[in-house]
Amino acid sequence: MKKHLFPILLLLLGNTVNAQQDFFALAGKDSPRIEFSDFRSMNADGASGQSIFGVSSEAHVFSQERKASVTEDKNSYNHSQSMTLAAVAYDSSGDNLVYMPMFSSNIYVLNQKTKEITLVENTVARVTSCDINSHITRMATGYDGNIYAINNAGTQFIQISKKNNQYVVNDLGIIKDDASNGKNSFTSIESGFGGDMIADGDNNFYVFSTSGNVFKVSTKELKAKFVGKISGLPENYSVNGVAVNSNGKVVVASAKGASMYELSVDNLEAKKLSGETNLHIYDLASKYFVNDRTASAAVLANLDVYPTKVDEGFVYVKVNDKNVKGNLKLNVFDLSGKTIVTQRLSVKDGSLNQQIYLKDLVSGSYIVNITDESGKALLNKKILVTE
């Protein structure tokens, strides 16, 4: 089975499309300044979807530190609907949007279903309103399931993780220019500031500056290496939002009300998307990655494994499909293809909701594979095991 696993995953990756909620946008108003409008879902072609939460929405904010609801000062920069929002990431562990105002160290977590907001106060992110170098303008979900953010000058590389249902913030250090960058500096305002970031399958990041320069940031070495400049964009196009869509392509968007474009990190050649042409987008976010080695796909709509972020040592397998009968086989593989867990499942009358204990799995990413009696793959899904 091991030798057949990754071709199956690659095939499934190409067929997995969520057209109605492919990625998310932090949208702004048609204004010469940064002015938050709403968070909204986006289709793969760049068309605008449902508005999730906006500047006029009623905000219910709960402080993680104070363990109580709070009322925020809407005249300050430190509130959940601040006009200066410019960084957002998708937290797949709870279908949440994580974001930060530019002039604030506050971190907010928006639950898409309940619309409730968790305020994560922290002293790790050192953001001051008068220092543009300190502002958080890039944010993305890493391949390990944590949220990462980088300030304008690269002097703070922030990790936002979740432990025991609490968000924890860590400073991972200073990102420096690779010696080969020359005049294409990651830390200078002329070529490196602003923009957005995305993650790859090795938990490294591609950072896009507003000028269209692209840097690959190694999380091990904390170095940013210049990989090239986007071609095919209009002159003076400002790259403010970047995300990977379900097709594995990189989508870029601008705060200046321009069209959205799609490209590959292999050649950085931008092609215009057919979606909306006048959205003011300050940031993009998604659950997808560059060069992802795994797929989250099911052949049957009513077969699933959950949760995808495992912090209690077990997952559930749910089946609700009369076409599924008899015995199924569940395998859990690590990312090298090694089998870690094998278990038989028995489906009766097309229904199953069974808890699977993941004994002694160390923290990391795994693939859950479910096959029928003939060996046909019904589901391959990535999960993240955390302590």
TrEMBL record:
Domain Secretion system C-terminal sorting span(s) in chain numbering: 313-383
Name this protein carries in UniProt: T9SS type A sorting domain-containing protein
Cleaved signal peptide residues: 1-19
SUPFAM superfamilies assigned: 3-carboxy-cis,cis-mucoante lactonizing enzyme (SSF75011)
Organism: Chryseobacterium kimseyorum
Record Pfam families: Por_Secre_tail
Source superkingdom: Bacteria
InterPro entries, A to Z: Secre_tail
